[in-house]
Design brief:
single chain; 73% helix; 431 residues; mainly alpha; 0% strand
């Protein structure tokens, strides 16, 4: 025949459906539904961390007769509730043997709360001989039905090798199933696995996520773990950023050194590749840094070439302007020099005019006293024989240029020295 509730096939002589637990007797089903409601309330209290005892205590006065009747008629929820009364001594004399007996009856009917409880009894030897392997079997039956507390307990056994071989990978999966149902123990233990990378790839961010979920439910030490890991991750990010910065600076420095002579040998390329590997730089990042340094180098070289060209042209302008006039040949030479230096016509024109202004301004500046004294000594030496040859005049011009004296100043000083020489060496006429 079929169960009236879940429509699964059940044996003809079965009073309860092995799939959903429903009874085929309508009166008994009403009694069962009442027990289910009580069991749900008790389970909520257990899941909330309060335990089922407060609910049993406040309800047994009115509900115990129905729990007993349901238990005796084979209602698994009633058996579990009746067993709890024997455990606590509510309405009946406290008796652990009777309690475990009713728990086992409910557990054998597939009631996950009872199965989990029987597992704990075997694990701790409460009312039955201690048997860790048997405890694991009962935990597994309840866990496979989706009971979060049993899933968490089974995961703990797999973590610690209690009644079963250690299997952290399976433990993680059962912790996850419990955690996803909101079990705070499962959430905390799953976080521990993620933090240390046991049975799962290490992921401290994921660990924080599950620690935080457990903390929100008031799980002890969960918030402490959140704070600790958050600080560790922040420091790790800071260290990572500094390491990346140091690696970039070192690699860029090596690139600059390799590019210093404007060419890159095969050995230098190989050395840069090996350095990038040792600094844990990806190929794309290392290439980006190298190309950036290469652009900077070429830009700097272009600027230096332009600067050198300007300087060379200015010097040529100064030389052409040294005697105060620029011949046609000198103009042509300056024009050709500007072309060879790849300077624009406007640029050369501007530079020449600028040097011309400087030259004209210098003509109005009197030489310092010490320079004037030195130049006068040179004039006296040249005039010692009473005449100034063309070569001596050129020498004086060169000296004046060296002293950066204007032509006017040079001519005035030379004329003054000639006058002095004549006054002291030529005879005066008498009347």
């Amino acid at each position: 025949m079929k169960c009236f509730k879940c429509r699964q096939e059940i044996p003809d002589n079965s009073r309860f459906c092995p799939q959903c637990g429903a009874t085929q007797d309508e009166d008994l089903e009403v009694l069962r539904q009442g027990c289910i409601g009580d069991a749900v309330e008790c389970e909520r209290a257990i899941a909330g961390g309060q335990g089922g005892r407060p609910y049993i205590r406040k309800s047994f006065d009115k509900r115990l007769p129905e729990w007993k009747r349901a238990a005796e008629l084979g209602v698994r929820e009633g058996q579990w509730l009746f067993a709890r009364c024997f455990e606590e001594g509510f309405g009946v004399e406290r008796n652990q043997v009777h309690a475990i007996s009713w728990h086992i009856k409910a557990a054998e009917q597939g009631y996950p709360l009872a199965q989990n409880h029987v597992g704990s009894c075997y694990l701790n030897g409460n009312g039955v001989p201690k048997d860790e392997a048997e405890a694991v079997q009962w935990y597994r039956r309840a866990a496979e039905q989706g009971y979060a507390m049993a899933q968490s307990n089974l995961a703990w056994c797999l973590d610690t090798g209690t009644g079963v071989d250690i299997d952290e990978t399976q433990a993680v999966e059962w912790h996850r199933k419990a955690a996803e149902q909101g079990d705070d123990t499962g959430q905390f233990n799953l976080a521990v696995h993620y933090e240390w990378g046991s049975g799962v790839t290490e992921d401290k961010t994921e660990a924080i996520k599950w620690y935080r979920k457990a903390a929100l439910q008031g799980y002890e030490k969960a918030q402490e773990a959140v704070d600790r890991l958050t600080e560790e991750l922040a420091q790790a990010e800071k260290d990572k950023a500094q390491k990346a910065k140091d690696a970039e600076l070192r690699f860029r420095a090596e690139c600059k050194e390799a590019l210093a002579d404007a060419k890159l040998t095969s050995d230098e390329k190989h050395q840069l590749k090996e350095l990038a590997k040792s600094l844990e730089l990806s190929k794309s990042v290392a290439k980006e840094f190298f190309e950036d340094e290469k652009r900077k180098f070429l830009k700097s070289r272009r600027k230096q070439h332009a600067k050198d060209a300007v300087l060379k042209f200015r010097i040529a302008c100064k030389n052409a302007l040294a005697d105060g006039k620029v011949s046609i040949d000198e103009k042509d030479q300056l024009r050709e020099l500007g072309k060879s230096l790849k300077l624009a016509h406007e640029t050369t024109k501007h530079l020449f005019e600028d040097e011309k202004k400087i030259f004209l301004a210098s003509q109005k500046v009197a030489p310092t006293k010490s320079i004037e004294v030195q130049f006068r000594k040179a004039c006296k030496k040249v005039l010692a024989d009473g005449k100034v040859t063309p070569d001596e005049k050129d020498q004086l011009k060169s000296l004046a240029k060296f002293f950066k004296m204007s032509n006017e100043a040079m001519k005035q000083i030379l004329a003054d020295e000639v006058r002095i020489f004549r006054q002291t060496h030529l005879p005066q006429r008498t009347s």
